[in-house]
């Protein structure tokens, strides 16, 4: 090989190399430009979606309402997020469906029981928030949950584990007149007339926001005398076996009782069985019940804030000593109040998020 040949080879190699470099950099800059175009388009869509959300009555010229709905839907695909799925008896499963087309009402199918929905349209899009209470008596095991929103379908699997409920044998002198009155036929009829109809009540409007709080300050001496779900019998009689549906907070007589969360007061009066009673509807299917108080504030029909004074602790009705019976329900289902007060509770464990493709539920704990 002479020098001439070597020179030609070098020139050819250099030419090929520079062509390759040119080609690659052209492709890279093309990709960059494409990414920039996409980002720009996405930003424009976001901006338009936000504008449309802020001015729901402004429809761009030449766009029908249906087209607009589809357009907005394409900006914000539906998102399904599940809260904590490792649950205990008395717990709560929470689910969130974001950017659901306006005309669609989602459905939830599960052997755990009925779900309660609230709709949030505060940003112009339809978001649905669902809670499924897990009964204290729900059998432990795996449960499937199917969520349908129009053509979209999501599946999430939930595990319910057994919660070890305490057992208590209450010794009560049933000949004491106040105890006899509290368990009389009249007392039962009054309970069925005043309280029973309020139990299934579900209002769509949600008054509560954030963590629920303990309605009393325990002070140095206060304690929980009966837990949620505790199995109770009276005077050793197995026929009286029942689950305690609330929490008994043993504090001094006269201790102020405050609303656990914001809501509408459904009832505030004396009843033979539950004594001085307050019932608050927090909306979105949540209600709280306060029994055996010494006094009650006359608040029926009013909307109150979290922490509003609703009465004082006492021992009225079917009660053996000063304590507050505090009960919380989702729909008809009593749930553990303490679980509602933990920031990690199922009801708060839903975070915003996105999913990859339909049918996959992103779980957050
Ligand atoms: Zn109680």
- Ligands, deduplicated: zinc ion
CATH architecture annotation of the largest domain? Distorted Sandwich
Distance between the termini: 72 Å
Main beta sheet: 10 strands, antiparallel
By helix and strand content, what is the structural category? alpha+beta
What is the fold named in CATH at topology level of the largest domain? Glucose Permease (Domain IIA)
Rg over alpha carbons = 30 Å
**Share in β-strands:** 25-35%
The CATH homologous superfamily of the largest domain is called Glucose Permease (Domain IIA)
Mean pLDDT across all amino acids: 84
Helical content (DSSP H or I, runs of 4+): 10-25%
Low-confidence stretches: 351-365
How many structural domains does the protein architecture include? 3
Task: Describe this structure in a few short sentences.
This protein has 365 residues and is an alpha+beta fold. It has helices spanning 3-54, 65-75, 177-182, 185-194, 337-340, and strands at residues 79-82, 86-88, 92-98, 107-110, 116-120, 127-133, 141-149, 152-161, 167-170, 223-226, 231-234, 237-243, 247-250, 256-258, 263-271, 275-283, 286-296, 303-304, 309-313, 324-330, 333-335, 362-363.
Describe the structure.
This protein is of the alpha+beta class. The chain is built from five helices and 22 strands. Strands 10, 13, 14, 15, 16, 17, 18, 19, 20 and 21 form a ten-stranded antiparallel beta sheet that branches. Residues 351-365 have low confidence and may be disordered. The structure holds zinc ion. Zinc ion binds at residues 226, 244, 246, 248, 325.
């Amino acid at each position: 090989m002479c020098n001439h040949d070597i020179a030609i080879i070098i020139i050819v190699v250099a030419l090929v190399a520079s062509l390759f470099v040119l080609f690659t950099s052209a492709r890279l800059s093309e990709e960059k430009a494409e990414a920039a175009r996409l980002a720009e388009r996405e930003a424009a869509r976001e901006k338009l979606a936000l504008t449309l959300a802020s001015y729901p009555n402004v429809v761009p010229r030449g766009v029908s309402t249906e087209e607009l709905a589809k357009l907005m839907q394409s900006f914000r695909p539906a998102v399904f997020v599940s809260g904590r799925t490792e649950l205990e008896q008395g717990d709560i499963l929470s689910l969130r469906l974001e950017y659901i087309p306006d005309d669609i009402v989602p459905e939830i199918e599960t052997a755990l029981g009925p779900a309660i929905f609230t709709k949030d349209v505060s940003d112009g899009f339809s978001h649905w928030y669902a809670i499924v209470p897990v009964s204290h008596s729900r059998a432990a095991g795996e449960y499937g949950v199917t969520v349908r929103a129009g053509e979209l379908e999501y599946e999430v699997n939930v595990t319910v584990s057994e919660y070890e409920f305490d057992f208590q044998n209450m010794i009560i002198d049933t000949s004491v007149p106040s105890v006899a009155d509290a368990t009389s036929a009249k007392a039962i009829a009054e309970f069925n007339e005043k309280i029973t109809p309020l139990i299934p009540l579900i209002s769509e409007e949600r008054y509560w926001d954030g963590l629920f709080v303990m309605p009393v300050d325990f002070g140095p001496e206060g304690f929980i005398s009966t837990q949620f779900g505790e199995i109770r019998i009276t005077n050793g009689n197995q026929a009286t076996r029942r689950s305690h549906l609330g929490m008994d907070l043993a504090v001094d007589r006269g201790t102020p009782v405050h609303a656990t969360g914001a809501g509408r007061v459904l009832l505030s009066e004396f009843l033979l069985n539950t004594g001085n009673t307050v019932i608050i509807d927090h909306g979105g299917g949540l209600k709280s019940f306060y029994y055996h108080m010494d006094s009650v504030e006359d608040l029926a029909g009013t909307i109150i804030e979290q922490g509003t004074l609703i009465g004082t602790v006492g021992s009225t009705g079917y009660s053996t000593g000063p304590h507050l019976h505090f009960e919380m329900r989702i729909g008809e289902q009593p749930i553990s109040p303490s679980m509602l007060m933990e920031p990690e509770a199922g009801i708060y464990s839903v975070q915003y998020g996105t999913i990859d493709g339909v049918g996959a539920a992103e779980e957050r704990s």
